[in-house]
Design brief:
The protein is of the alpha/beta class. The chain has one domain (about 5-275): Vaccinia Virus protein VP39 (Rossmann fold), CATH 3.40.50.150. The protein has helices at about 15-25, 35-45, 70-75, 85-95, 130-140, 160-170, 185-195, 215-225, 240-255, 290-295; strands at about 60, 80-85, 100, 115-120, 140-150, 200-205, 210, 260, 265-275. The strands form two sheets. It has a seven-stranded mixed beta sheet with strand order 3-2-1-4-5-9-6, with helices on both faces. The longest helix is centred in the middle third of the chain and has 15 residues, at about 160-170. The protein is globular.
């Protein structure tokens, strides 16, 4: 899996987008293995809509792999889906009545002010220029339109990262990027503000995920299309000793007394609004009408 920070604007791409697309193509036939995790994350994301006193007529789902569609349909929101993978969009067309478009989320092909809701469930972490994509999302939202997105954040997959680093160092004497670092909650808040969104809110969610073996984790990452797509990854065939050693170390890092691996998915759940004149604005310095002295009262002991 992957992540972002401010370094995403460097001259070199962090992620191999061709590899991301191939992984998504392959995952179109294996999504059933991980549908529970994707749908649980989607449910937690869409719960935010139930706290709002407004309705949405047309939503864009970016890379959601179909997991958000039932929740949006229940809320009577018509949805257009887009995904980098043609096979994934074909799967969505077959299994739902939603319009699915094969499109790169780094170059969204939609007109300005097209949607009043954009949803991105566990998808934006493979984008190289995330600030640029967020600006595009703000552009295609109508004024006062809403962005809802979830993204893995630290310390997601930290034990797996450490296990591969230790194993590869022991087996080959060096370390290559196999799992890129994830952002923090603070990173996500800064990205929304930088993209010009109004009223950003970042919530932390933790999904408790457990495995009987490390192989189960690797299988699910592959089934979801979350394989390593770091541009600078080592593309040579790894030593046959690497994966057994890494999985053994993973057990030492996060197995409980029953041998069950605990690998929680830490999420940043982001909500932010496209700017509109009707939105509340913070008061400028000097505009406050109530002083702290009046609120707390005077100190009678003085």
């Amino acid at each position: 899996m992957s992540a972002h920070g401010e370094c995403m604007e460097s001259q070199h791409a962090i992620f191999d987008r061709h590899a991301v697309r191939l992984h998504r193509d392959r995952a179109a036939s294996t999504l059933s293995l991980v549908s529970g995790v994707l749908e649980e994350a989607a449910d937690r994301l869409l719960e935010r809509l139930d706290d709002l006193r407004r309705s949405f007529s047309l939503a864009l789902d970016i890379g959601g792999r179909g997991a958000t569609l039932s929740g949006l349909k229940i809320r009577d929101i018509e949805t257009v889906c887009c995904d980098l993978s043609f096979r994934m969009t074909s799967l969505i067309r077959r299994e739902s009545d939603a319009l699915a478009v094969c499109a790169d989320d780094e170059m969204l092909p939609f007109a300005d002010a097209s949607f009043d809701l954009v949803v991105a469930n566990l998808s934006l972490h493979w984008v190289n220029d995330l600030p640029g994509t967020l600006v595009q999302i703000r552009r295609i939202l109508k004024p006062d339109g809403l962005l809802l997105a979830s993204m893995p954040v630290l310390p997601t997959l930290a034990p797996l990262r450490a296990s591969f680093e230790e194993a590869e160092l022991a087996v080959s004497g060096g370390v290559s990027p196999r799992i890129s670092p994830f952002p923090t909650l603070r990173d996500c808040a800064a990205l929304l503000q930088r993209a010009g969104f109004a009223l950003p809110v970042i919530d932390a969610e933790v999904m408790d995920i457990r495995y009987r073996s490390g192989l189960g984790l690797l299988r699910d990452l592959k089934a979801a299309g979350e394989n390593n797509a770091v541009a600078l990854r080592d593309r040579r065939t790894p030593s046959p000793l690497l994966f057994p050693a890494a999985l053994e170390m993973l057990s030492t890092h996060c197995a409980d007394e029953d041998g069950v691996l605990r690998l929680p998915l830490h999420l940043a759940v982001m909500s932010a609004w496209a700017p509109a004149p009707t939105q509340p604005k913070p008061l400028e310095p000097g505009q406050f009408t109530t002083s702290l002295h009046d609120v707390f009262g005077s100190d009678k002991s003085e």
